[in-house]
Amino acid sequence: MKYSFTKFDNKEYYKNSTTSEVKSLVYKIRNQASNSPFLNFDISELIFTHLPLTKMKYNEEELKETIFDATWYFRKGNEEKIFEIITEKLKASR
């Protein structure tokens, strides 16, 4: 269940298929400074909000690939820290 972050650049997809919560997180991340202490948390929140990670079978490689795509897409964020945040959330939700 991989998500392509390039879909955020498709105006029709963004307008019709994306929830207001996802839209606001994308906007917030795009406008945050790269050194913001909240950036990694917000990117992990976006991944969680957009992908029902708690419902999907946890797959470390797929998760790492999704995080890589997100940090590449926004040109921001620390992959290791985002992975740690999401892993902690997954543990807490079980």
Q: Give the CA-based shape.
A: globular
Domain count: the total is 1
Rg from Cα: 13 Å
Our measurement of the CA-to-CA distance between the termini, rounded to an integer number of angstroms, reads 19 Å
Classify the helix fraction into a percent range. 55-70%
User: Sheet with the most strands?
Assistant: none
Give me the number of helical elements: 5
* Strand portion: under 5%
* Average predicted local confidence, pLDDT: 85
Explain the overall architecture.
The chain has one domain (19-92). The protein is 64% helix and 0% strand. It contains 5 helices and no strands. Helix 2 packs antiparallel against helix 3 and helix 3 crosses helix 5. The two termini are 19 Å apart.
Descriptive key words:
single chain, 94 residues, mainly alpha, globular
In short:
With 94 residues, the protein is mainly alpha-helical.
Set out the fold topology.
Elements lengths: L10 H7 L2 H12 L7 H12 L9 H15 L4 H14 L2
Helix pairs in contact: 2-3, 3-5
